[in-house]
Amino acid sequence: MRKIRTYQDVTHDTDSGLLEQVLDQQNRLADRLAQVRSVVAVASGKGGVGKSAITANLAAALAARGLALGAADADLNGPSLGRMLGVSRAQLADRASGVEPAQSPSGVRIMSMEFLQEEEDAPLRWREPSMGGFIWQSTLETGVLREFLGDVEWGELDVLLVDVPPGTDKIRRLLELVPDLDQMLLVTTPSETSRYVVSKSVRMAREAAVGTVALVANMVGHTCPECGHVSELFEGDGANRLEEESGVPIWAELPFDPRFGAATDSGTPLVITDPDAHSSRAILALADRVEEHVGIRAGDTAGRAGS
Amino acid sequence: MKFLCVDCDHVMDFAERQIPGDGTLAAVFTCGSCGREIAMLTNPMETQLISSLGVKIGGREVPAQPMELARTSLEGGRDDAFALSEDIPLASGGPATRGEGTSAGEATAGRIVWTSEAAGRLERVPSFVRGMVKRIYTDWARERGVSEITPDIMDRARTELGLEGM
What is the reported pLDDT for A77? Predict the structure, then answer.
């Protein structure tokens, strides 16, 4: 049998430069994120735990302190972050150096698939071919997320929050693009199912050596607005168990509050409209922790945020 | 991806790329030793997989544009999602319909102007990708010392750059 050289044996390139093009993409992303002091992912692995609402409130809380804030909606198939922050149909300035992000009334710079789609109720669809989507769709969506992070003129940011959709594969997708992620906030609930799913995300974050990993326990009890009685929404103690078993600390516990969802539905996070609400206070405490781990306080960022 | 001429044990070089517009792609590679040519033909699914990487077989003739992958791949993109950062400078003397006329002096000083016919053709490009397409034509003209973009220049650039549908 003839001996044919393997790909690794062949050092001469074909002049197609595919590898160089991929490296160029990575360099552009790295250059853009070099202007960001801290990239913070808000993820879970589990769906329906309130990631986007928490991201919107946390972004608004940090921006209100004078930090330069960006928020990237990595949920391409179910975008909602723009709407939750009061921006739904922004027009984005188109420059050779990048696309200008939208800006929320609370001062958060946002990029979301919401801004690119014509019809509100249209599911995300890519151009032909319709067959074989399972082969190329994940690759394409990773590339589009790379563009959301790297081709948007975020400018100098103190914090770039990334709202990560459900599924540990989506967390991995982000980690491949941003391997030196500073913080990952993993949103969970007291349910046992949530503990089970989020534990996988904890492990993934640890294996990727994410700088700081913390839990955010959402829907921890429900306070009756009439009598103040606190009732449990979930049986079990999954969030605390996850903290004990994994050693990952809980940074905030948010009670279930219908106003929290209603406020983000209206485009103004509750942390802005009612900062004294129990949920808002939890978000503000979370903002404290995030800020501490960025290593910045409002005082030493005022100059840049105000410039 | 590399192609090896087995008889010569020589790595073949990229020679030409053709995009017929039906979702397929043809890329020609040549053996620098014996001159043999082969064409790699990809079906629409394979072509999509390559373009999903945001790369061009044979290399890029123009730099990657901001959000190029999203703009060229998204079905149902919002027509007014992107705002052009500047008006199109129209050549003086033409039936200008928008923008300011530009003197010949400005053109020779490095500013690229568009004839009204070329500007009209650009207007027909969906605005979702118009800013990106405008930059590609302008950069192509600037690199070749062309000071005025006409429909003929657009055709030449399109052919040279393989810009299907632009």
Answer: 95
Cα A183 to Cα B80: distance, rounded to the nearest angstrom: 35
Q: Are A218 and A188 in contact (CB under 8 A)?
A: yes
Question: B23 touching A, CB under 8 A?
Answer: yes
Q: Under an 8 A CB cutoff, do A135 and B14 touch?
A: no
How many C-beta atoms surround the C-beta of residue B76 within 10 A?
A: 15
Closest Cα in chain A, distance from residue B70 (Å): 6
Directed axis angle between helix A133-150 and helix A18-33, to 10°? 40
Nearest to B70 among A2, A16, A147 (CB): A147
* pLDDT at residue A228, rounded to an integer: 67
Contact A302, A120 (CB under 8 A): no
CA quadruple B101, B103, B108, B110: dihedral, nearest 10: -40
- The answer to whether A205 touches A240, Cβ cutoff 8 Å, is no
How many domains does chain A contain in total?
A: 1
Residue B88 binned pLDDT confidence (cut-offs 50, 70, 90):
low
Residue B135 has pLDDT above 60, yes or no: yes
The amino acid at B46: E
The fold adopted by the segment(s) B1-59 is N-terminal domain of TfIIb (2.20.25)
- Domain spans in chain B, listed from the N-terminal domain onward: 1-59, 64-166
Res. B44 pLDDT band, cuts 50 70 90: confident
Residues A271, A202: Cα–Cα separation, whole Å = 27
B47 touches B25 (CB < 8 A): yes
**CA B130/CA A15 separation, integer angstroms:** 30
Residue A10 lies inside a defined structural domain of this protein? no
Q: What token pair was written down for A167? A: 């599924």
Q: What ipTM was estimated for this complex?
A: 0.87
Q: Give me the residue from A5, A92, A125 closest to B82, CB to CB.
A: A92
Looking at domain B64-166, which CATH architecture does it have?
A: Orthogonal Bundle (1.10)
Q: What is the C-alpha end-to-end distance of chain B, expressed in Å?
A: 28
Q: Considering only alpha carbons, which residue of chain A is nearest residue B47?
A: A129
Q: Which residues of chain A have pLDDT under 70?
A: 14, 128, 130, 228, 295-307
Q: Is the minimum CB–CB distance between A4 and chain B shorter than 8 Å?
A: yes
pLDDT attached to residue A304:
33
Query: Does residue A182 contact residue A294 with C-beta atoms inside 8 Å?
Result: yes
Q: Which of A25, A91, A118 sits opposite B54 (nearest CB)?
A: A25
Structure tokens at A36: 């960001």
